[in-house]
Please model this.
Amino acid sequence: MHFPYLPGGRNDFFDSELARDAVVRNLQTLAESSQRLSDECKKNRPEIDWRAMSGFRNILVHGYLGLDLKLVWLVIENELPPLKKALEEMKKP
Model:
C-alpha cells in the first residue's frame, strides 16, 4: 500500500516527526469520519471493527504524550489495507 507522506515507508514514519504528525492527524480524521457513518452502512461491512476504530481515534487524540508509535505503525501496516479495500467497495454503486 502506498502512503503519500511515507515514500520511504516505515523508516519515514519513525525518522520524520513531520511525516508522523501528518499521518497521525490523517488517522484521527479517518477514525472520526467513521463515527459519522450510519449504523446501516456499518452493518454492511461487518469485517471492519468500527468500535475499535473509534477507540483508536480516542487513543490518537488523547494519547499524544504517550502514543505508542510501534502500535500506530502496526495499524498502518495491517489495518489500513483491508479498510481501504472495504471503503472502495462501499463507494461502488
User: Anything to note?
Assistant: The radius of gyration is 14 Å.
